[in-house]
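Cross-check.
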Amino acid sequence: MYDPCIGDCGTVQIQTPTVPMVHDLAPLFNFNASFLQRLDDLHESCGYAAYLDKFLTFPPSGMQPNNLTTGNCDLNDLVSEAVSAVNPCYNPYDVSQMCP
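Predicted model, tokenized:
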């Protein structure tokens, strides 16, 4: 069995890269500036930006923490709900997929 999970899967592999992905694929999401600013603010306040800066480097700066967040930091669900309002066929495994 292959499990690609490294560390804290729910946070590290799902929540942490959400905002950078949205910025990298901005034309596919087409969010307005105020929503993007809200995502950026949460990305900073939840510690995701600092985490990426510290642990997504080589050589590693140390052991990754077990628990990264507290509070309301579910950016992945926030993005999924917002994009689903525009694209009801949104697929998190293929973000470029549109409705037929």
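The two ends are 34 Å apart (CA to CA). The chain has one domain: 9-86. Passed to J.P. for a second look.
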